[in-house]
């Protein structure tokens, strides 16, 4: 008979994590542009950055201090954080239900497609989900035991969540809705407000940073949401909803949708899970309808969503459906992780449209071909593309630490536009697809063309120019 205890859950979760670590070594992929971008931030610690609050940079900095700047080391915190988050999910379910619900909730979470995919990279979601789940755990403990200590911890972790990703703010909305439904008396007590003040205080350094930088991060958040463009896009809402089958898994998201349209619980523990799952999912769905939303934007909804779905299925004696859902998610993960092995075994020729790993291949090879030029000319590199600049700063380290972003219109579109400036009279090595900078320099000369073949229909191709003496924009 299966023992639904923490030990067995943890052994399973640890094995999954170690398997993912093996996969990271096996697939031999480069850093994704955002990983390289965040790694660059981690070399210049601050309380904020152009597009995100600072936690992701702090985490990468800590990892680099421990084990260096290799791709594996940069990605490693993601594996650890998802393991810890699955433990938090186990503990949340145990607080609300029992070890059986906790066991399957923890295993379900660690095998979600969302987690399987993002375990391959360090992202703001991995950090957010850890602090979100930890805050939810201590909020539940605070409600159950009415101890100030738990409220204080929830305030601290809530603030750290805000320093990880701004949509942590939906947590506060879920709290208010749940308390209104089940615990109105908490509004008359000081503990809730103490936790809120603590969370605000923890977050305050990032707010001050934004104040001194014209609230640039909030401007970026507004721009990426496209809320100021044409409104109302039912097609994008449909695409977002369909994408959630791939994020949460077809079985579990199907059950979650059923619970959304046919609420069937009156107990407060279920109302709590509804509040934290559907408020988050609801707001992001509205965002998708009004303008757009990426599939992962609702990721935190699946902390409570996982426990809700598993608790419902166990109450309805649908253990086999849970196992089927987990099996489907695991099979999808294995197919994704070993995609190159499978296509090679089946003698399938990959193209740029058939390879999900396209965006994380070829960058190291570009850097290898660029490095001799950088060392020969000994001038700073100049780029006009954030993706290329982030990848080259990482893969040419330390030769590209003084790289600059070519920005003739002066519009701030990324961290490099904020931090780097071309100097009058200075010469640069310009790496680009097309030379857009000729008129701003006294002279330009094509040095070489770098070409890295990836597929029959796609190469990474860049031109390298010597740009003599910048005249100004």
Automatic annotation (TrEMBL):
<feature type="transmembrane region" description="Helical">
    <location>
        <begin position="237"/>
        <end position="260"/>
    </location>
</feature>
<keyword id="KW-0808">Transferase</keyword>
<keyword id="KW-0328">Glycosyltransferase</keyword>
<dbReference type="InterPro" id="IPR050297">
    <property type="entry name" value="LipidA_mod_glycosyltrf_83"/>
</dbReference>
<protein>
    <recommendedName>
        <fullName>Glycosyltransferase RgtA/B/C/D-like domain-containing protein</fullName>
    </recommendedName>
</protein>
<dbReference type="Pfam" id="PF13231">
    <property type="entry name" value="PMT_2"/>
</dbReference>
<keyword id="KW-0812">Transmembrane</keyword>
<feature type="transmembrane region" description="Helical">
    <location>
        <begin position="296"/>
        <end position="314"/>
    </location>
</feature>
<feature type="transmembrane region" description="Helical">
    <location>
        <begin position="9"/>
        <end position="27"/>
    </location>
</feature>
<keyword id="KW-1133">Transmembrane helix</keyword>
<keyword id="KW-1003">Cell membrane</keyword>
<dbReference type="GO" id="GO:0005886">
    <property type="term" value="C:plasma membrane"/>
</dbReference>
<feature type="transmembrane region" description="Helical">
    <location>
        <begin position="103"/>
        <end position="120"/>
    </location>
</feature>
<feature type="transmembrane region" description="Helical">
    <location>
        <begin position="149"/>
        <end position="180"/>
    </location>
</feature>
<feature type="transmembrane region" description="Helical">
    <location>
        <begin position="79"/>
        <end position="97"/>
    </location>
</feature>
<dbReference type="GO" id="GO:0016763">
    <property type="term" value="F:pentosyltransferase activity"/>
</dbReference>
<dbReference type="InterPro" id="IPR038731">
    <property type="entry name" value="RgtA/B/C-like"/>
</dbReference>
<dbReference type="GO" id="GO:0009103">
    <property type="term" value="P:lipopolysaccharide biosynthetic process"/>
</dbReference>
<keyword id="KW-0472">Membrane</keyword>
<feature type="transmembrane region" description="Helical">
    <location>
        <begin position="272"/>
        <end position="290"/>
    </location>
</feature>
<feature type="transmembrane region" description="Helical">
    <location>
        <begin position="192"/>
        <end position="209"/>
    </location>
</feature>
<feature type="domain" description="Glycosyltransferase RgtA/B/C/D-like">
    <location>
        <begin position="51"/>
        <end position="209"/>
    </location>
</feature>
<feature type="transmembrane region" description="Helical">
    <location>
        <begin position="321"/>
        <end position="339"/>
    </location>
</feature>
